[in-house]
Structures are given as C-alpha cells and as structure tokens.
Amino acid sequence: MSGTGEAEGETRYQRGVATTILSRIGLGLLTLFLVSIVIFSAVEMLPGDFAKAILGQSATPETVAAFQKELGLDRPAAIRYGEWLGRILVGDLGQPFARGSRQNVAEIIAPRLYNTIFLAALTACVAVPLALLLGILTALHRNGFFDRAMNGVTLVAISLPEFFVAYLLMFVIVSRGTFEYSATAQALPEWLSAAILWALNAVPKFPVLSTVSPATPFWEQVWKCVMPATTLTLVIVAHMMRMTRASIINLLSSPYIETAKLKGISPWRVILAHALPNAWSPIAQVVSFNLAYLIVGVVVVEVVFVYPGIGQLMVDAVRSRDVPVVQACALIFAVTYILLNLIADIVTIVTNPRLLYPK
Amino acid sequence: MTDAPKQTGRARTPPPSGASDARLMLRTMVRSVTDAPASALFGLTVILFYVVLGVFAPWIAPYGEAEILGRSYEPWAQQFVLGTDQLGRDVLTRLIYGARNSVGIALLATLLSFVIGASLGLAAAIRRGWFDVVFSRLVDLLMSIPSIIFALMLLTVFGTSVANLILIIAVLDSTRVFRLARAVGLGVTVTDFVEAARLRGEGTRWILLREVLPNVATPLIAEFALRFCFVFLTISALSFLGVGLQPPMADWGSMLRESATLISYGDPTPLLPAAAIALLTVGVNFVADWLLQKSSGVEA
Fold this sequence. Notes:
The complex is a heterodimer. Chain A has 16 helices and no strands. Chain A has helices at about 10-40, 50-55, 60-70, 75-90, 105-140, 145-160, 160-180, 185, 190-200, 220-225, 225-250, 255-260, 265-305, 310-320, 325-350, 355. The longest helix of chain A is centred in the C-terminal third of the chain and has 38 residues, at about 265-305. In chain A, about 30% of the residues are buried. By secondary structure, chain B is an all-alpha fold. Chain B has one domain (about 40-295): Orthogonal Bundle (MetI-like fold), CATH 1.10.3720.10. Chain B has twelve helices and no strands. Chain B has helices spanning about 5-10, 15-35, 40-55, 55-60, 90-125, 130-140, 145-160, 160-190, 190-200, 205-240, 250-260, 270-300. Chains A and B meet through helix 1, helix 6, helix 7, helix 13 and helix 14 of A and helix 7, helix 10 and helix 12 of B.
C-alpha cells in the first residue's frame, strides 16, 4: 500500500491492494484460530464437580467416570483440540450433553441458524438504509430543529434495553384487545379512551409470539418476524444513525467538499457524487460495528418473542450447562462477527478512492 | 475512587501542574452543574433518586424484600399499590429493593472492571515492553467477539453465582477500560513532568498515582458512567435471560423474566422493572453525554 503514492501505475496499485487484503484475511484467520482455542478450552476449565451437576444427584461414581471418559479428559488437550477442530471443519459439532437427545448438535442448530439469519437479514434490510438516510439528513441539517430532535430521540433510544422496547411493543399490540376493559380506560375521559382505542386498532394485529417451524411459508415467516425485527431495528438504528451522522459531518468539513459547494453544486449532488465515494469506508465500519449490538439484541429478542433461533438455543444451553451446544453457538457467533468485520475492512480497502488514482 | 487521588494530588504533589489542574477541574465542574443543560439535570436527578432508594430501601419499602403477604398476582390496589408477584410478594417493595441489588451489583462490577482495566492499562503505558505487548494482544483477543458471547460461555462453565457474574463481567469489560487508560496514559507519559519524575528515580506506583492519575481523571469519569450503563444493561439482560442474578434476590432483570407472561393479559406490571432499568440508563447516558462534552471542551 505504501508504494501506491509513487508513479508506478495500475499494477503497482493492484499489488498493493492485494497485499493489504491478503494480510487482513490472514489476521482474520489468526483471530479465528485463537478464538477457537478459547472456545475449545471451555471444556478444560470445567470445575471438578461439573459431571455431578450435569448428571444430577443420582449419578453413581461409575457414570461420572464414564462421562469424564466421554469428554476425553484422560488424553492431552492439544490432541483433543486437533480432533475437535478437524471434526468441526467437516461439519460435525459433536453430541449434546442432554441425555435422550437423538439429534447431534449440527442437526439441532441448522434450522435455528436459518431462522436467526432470516431475522437478522430482515432487520438489516430495514435498519441499514433507514439509518443511513436519517444520518445523512441530520448531517445535512445539522444543528437544525430536526437534527436536535433526532439527537434527543436517539440518545434515549440507545439507552433503552432491548427487552423494554420489546415488551412495550408487545403491550401495545395486546392492548388492542384488553384496553377497553382496563381500569385506565374507565378512569380516563370517554373521548380520550375512544381516541386511544381508535389508535390501537389502527395498528395491524402483528403476532406477539414468533413461533415458526421449518414448514412455515416464507411470507408467513416475514409476518411473524415483524415484531422482533421492529424491536431490533429501533435498537440499532439509533446507534447506526449517530455514527453515520458523525462520519458524514467529518467528511463534509473537508476542503474539497467546501470547494464543490462554492462551485454552486446542489447539496444532494455534493453528497452523492463527491462525499459518498469517500464515505463508503466509514459506512462499512459503522454497519459492521453495529452487528455486535445486533448479536446481543438477537439473543434477548428471540427469548422475548419465543422465536426458535440460535440465540434462544444458546441461552437454554447455558441454563442446562450443555457445553457442546454452547461451544457450537459461540463459535457460530464468533465466526459471523469476525467475518463481517473482515468484509467491512476489505470494503474500506477496496473503495478507498485514493488508491484508485495513484499520483 | 476518583476523589482520593485528586485530594492527595492537590496536597502533596510537588509539580504545580497536577495540583492546579485538579483545582481547575473541580471548579469547572461545580460551575458547570449550575448551568448544565436540562437533560443533564434530569439525569442527575434520576441518579440521585435511585441512590436514595437504594440506600434507604428498608425504610422506604412498605414490606420486607422476600415477605410473602397474600395471594399471587393481586391487582393494583390500596394495600399493594402495584399488586403482588407470582409468590404473593409486594411488587413495589421488590422494585425498591431492586435499586439496591441491581444497581449495587452493576456498580461493584464496574468498579472492579475499572480497577483491573485502569491499573493494567496505565501500567502498560508506563512500563511498555513485553508487559504492554502481552496485555494488549490479550485485550485484542477478548474484544474480537462480542463480550456477551464470552460471558454466556464462561457462565456455562463456572455456573451462575453472583460472585462469578461480577467477576466475569468485570474482566470482560475491563478490556475497554484498559484500551482507554493505556491510550490516555501514553499521551501523558511523554509529558515533561512524568519524564522529570522518572529521572528523579520515582517508582512506577508513585508515577501512576501521583503524576498520571490526576491528569487522566476527567476522561475516566465520563468513561465510568458509560461503562456503568453497559455493565448494568448486560447484567440486567443476563438476569432477564435467567443466567444472571438468581430468583430469591429482588432484581429488575429477573423480576421482568418472572412476570413477563402477564403482558399477554394486558397487565402493564412487567413493564415496571424494565422501565426502572431504562430510566436509569437514560439518566446516566444524559449525564455522561454532558460530561464528555464538558471534558472535551475544557481540554481543547
């Protein structure tokens, strides 16, 4: 990358970009490798009385010994790590601790992983364009009324926990049926109760429980995901919008934008043709940064709306201390997160306009 | 935590820069409270309200924390202002005790995370060398995946007790404090007065407490408020998921979890603990936002 400043032309540029990208991929793989060691060592760190806790009070010394043998704790950790990694690379995630489970971990996870990706993708499709639009609008009209109002709203929205937003939305939907008979409705003046009831009925009757199965048709699943997706959108749009606004403002203060404005180009053209090419990398960073919030949000929101995704599975497994399932879920979340960060960094490298025109 | 070093810095540190900085900072803060924006005043009021509730919970609450008083799920009425929960305990009482338990535990975890993160971060900035490299890479690794995933994994392994919860959250959260403290410390350690202290032959501990800390206190206070919000929300979320604070304790996250089904009957009671959590984080965020603006304004 350092060589692109000199007059060497296209090939030098390409080589520079390729080297940067390859080293970034290498760093990603190294991180993944180290994280996999940490996740694997969860079994190593298990306290001594763990077998009893899993097998219950009735466990005999023989079953405890058999269980420890099954974990392979009698062999060196390095060898077991190699085997574990090898099995995972061919898609074998092992057997859950839960007795009587006829499925292996991979079979349990597959449909749930699809559901979670479905929900996350649906959220991203709504949240990302919305956040970028709002971020650009507030940056254009900064310190105006709209900007200050949005600043207050988003500061509150950032502070609200996912479960509060989720239950609040749920309460609104449920109130369609119950508000009429509630004490509040009787206490309020009649015209106000009637107005609230009218407003509540104007909201479509979204399902408050997102129970889906692999047989659920596509559009029905979208319909059932409206509530969890709305919750997640509300939670992450605020973050994403604030970061977009900050990076656009940062960009708009650069001299070449000033020049474009002084030339008399329309504000939208300045944004789209002049600012945007330089904005892709901060935007990619903003989007990937917010995926961390999305992952946390997914875990909570899936539990609230009883949506059979991987977050809910992980929480259930943590409660029953089913280590193989927790490890598999943690690994999937980690891979997703590291991969998306990697993609954001590559977008940053590739779209850097300074690299396109070597001096 | 932040007051004591400031005091000693003012009273005993020979170089005048640290002392006048501390005094200036204190004076600026007192003055700025009087002309703080409405949002910050609102935040301060909310925090004060929660502190009073938490400290005086046994005197304010109408009943005992785990006292079973009547039938389960009593409606809102004269005797039980906000009704009773699934075991017949007074909801208002448990909400008030929640201010003590939920906030207290989050505060403890944040303090611990600061002690770990700030001391290691500042030490790394001063000592550099292998110490810096080892801890910086370790922090990179811990931050390479979302901390809630690590937290869930560690809770599976070690079990969900209060002590484990505080320790795990504190260690995971200290990574962010480490980075900030290290960056700020690096900025300060290249200044002349630290160099002078080093040449005088002062030890790392002395430099850390008497020279560096008074100068990094402002950004650390603002960061403390933000970290507290994060820790508080994480612990609440974990408790809500059933893997954090456990039932007999009156805690907002687990109260929400236990009463959540009432929502489907149009009963707003489950929203109360959730709102208690939300109100505090909104308040603390308002104050942190104002502090950050203040501190960047003072420093610039």
